């Protein structure tokens, strides 16, 4: 009965939208809803365009719609629906679009290498998003090393347009390299995080301690915004002044320590805190110092 009401458009638009959102990751279902009635079409289109690079359907025509200046209304309308952008998914989508378009009726022929052409398309898309002032819910910085050049150019473009950073609700960094593997990209990422003045959650992974150095910086702006810190696979024997970091954070709600290496020095820093140590998760591969662990738990 409820399904028939949904497809006939008998339910209020607000309730219909809440139901449709359950299918936001199901491309085929959302796409089929477009042809049911005008109401469903109007409600579904924003969901289809809020994270288009995540749909692995084998069809990448939406890239042409972004790029095609003949559809003026599309350029102005569909951009505003974009809410989630993952740089790695962007790179992959452009590469697959190029492969399919090259063999299609368009017959793409360029005087440049495939890699340079794909990089040009990627940068063009990002410039379109910045020009149209999209308000992203989440931007995830992620890439394999083969895309480091593309990622570096995108980060430089973003840093040249700081309003784009301020319009990002959630900034996720999933760029796992050693601090010395790509200093330029690491520095760009650090600058982006520094400029994101409403940071609420941060993950410090392994030996990538550039984020930790930012926390120690005296001119960062997160004292009254950062709620969650996650330490993952961190060797705390190389982390100093941790107590200074926690003392500066005024609205910290939870600390998560996962697969890290603890020691007496780390525990002593925590014991010296004047503020509560709000440990919510503690997952260890091995426990070698029982007394230190007990002291840590007593402080939490």
Give a verbal description of the structure.
- With 300 residues, this protein is α/β, with parallel strands linked by helices.
- It folds into 3 domains: 1-49; 50-193, no CATH class; 197-300.
- Helices cover 48% and strands 11% of the residues.
- It has 15 helices and 7 strands.
- The strands form 2 sheets. A 4-stranded parallel beta sheet has the order 4-5-6-7, with no helix packed on it.
- α12 links the parallel β4 and β5.
- α7 crosses α8 (114-131), α8 (114-131) runs parallel beside α9 (148-159) and α14 packs parallel to α15.
- The longest helix is centred in the middle third of the chain and has 18 residues, at 114-131.
- The chain is globular, with a radius of gyration of 23 Å.
- It starts with a helix and ends with a helix.
Write the layout of secondary structure elements.
Elements: H1 2-8, H2 13-20, H3 27-33, H4 38-49, H5 61-67, H6 72-77, E1 84-86, H7 87-102, H8 114-131, E2 138-142, H9 148-159, H10 162-166, E3 170-174, H11 183-195, E4 201-205, H12 210-216, E5 228-232, H13 242-248, E6 254-258, H14 264-271, E7 279-283, H15 290-299
Parallel strand pairs: 1-2, 2-3, 4-5, 5-6, 6-7
Helix pairs in contact: 2-4, 3-4, 7-8, 8-9, 9-11, 14-15
